Amino acid sequence: MTKMGYEGSSTIRRRSGNHPCRGATYYGTGTALARIAGAILRDEHAVLTVSSLAPESMELGEVSLSLPTIITRDGVTRVVSIPLDASERQALEASAEKLKQYLALLKDIR
Predict the structure, then answer these.
(1) Whole-angstrom Cα distance, residue 32 to residue 23?
(2) Which domains are seen in the chain, by residue range?
(3) How much is the pLDDT for 18?
(4) What is the largest CA-CA distance in the chain?
(5) What is the pTM of this model?
């Protein structure tokens, strides 16, 4: 094992009380995916933050964003509308615009 790998491993163990699994990001990803799959399989109508195409009513253009969304056996049922103040709305619009710019670059590469 390289010194860097060993140091990273021991850092995770120190921060997590020497438990070998805590602090590893891949466990968080797996847990999140299991939660989403469970919501679909059990038709929970759960509100989860997932990435999907932003609804037209948000007037952000054709872009996928991570937003609070109702998840059922059909997958994404609807994005939950949440009130945003002016600065939050501006930040959301800036994020959507940046993503659209990157998508345009990717289309040009093809």
Answers:
(1) 15
(2) 3-109 (3.90.110.10)
(3) 55
(4) 52
(5) 0.70
